[in-house]
Amino acid sequence: MKTITYTEFRKNMKKYADLAETERVIVSRGHGKAFYVVPVEAIKDTGYSKAFISEIKESEKQIVKGHSAKIKSRAGLHQFLEQL
Q1: Which residues of the chain form beta strands (DSSP E)?
Q2: 37/57 same-domain check
Q3: Residue 20 φ then ψ, to 5°
Q4: 37 in the same domain as 61
Q5: For the purposes of burial, counting CB atoms within 10 Å of the CB of 56, is it exposed (0-12), middle (13-18) or buried (19 or more)?
Q6: For 45-75, how does the pLDDT look when each residue is reduced to its tens digit (9 = 90+)?
Q7: How much helix, strand and coil, in percent to the nearest 5, is found in the chain?
């Protein structure tokens, strides 16, 4: 792991971008602020959780069945919320 200052990073961006492919690089900005330099390929974005996707799909099924409310105005929104 390599920790460098923001100024050092600015002066040698290519060097530290290349280094970040093989080891952790932390850029310290002072006042307790720091950031990792991470290649995009290293980020494992799994997206939404399976439970969240399942809830969305179930909600879509309810809409298809007509179990939804279409709100067209502010007054309609207030009326809907009062029913809850």
Answers
A1: 2-5, 25-30, 33-37
A2: no
A3: -65, -15
A4: no
A5: exposed
A6: 777 888 888 999 999 999 999 998 889 999 9
A7: 50, 20, 35
Domain that holds residue 79: 50-83
From CA 53, how far away is CA 66, in angstroms rounded?
Answer: 20
Sheet-wide strand order for 25-30: 2-5, 25-30, 33-37
pTM of the model: 0.52
Which residue reads 């007509």 in tokens? 66
Q: Residue 2 corresponds to which tokens in the numbers above?
A: 């390599």
Q: Are residues 8 and 36 in the same domain?
A: yes
Rounded to 5 degrees, φ, ψ at 64 are -60, -35
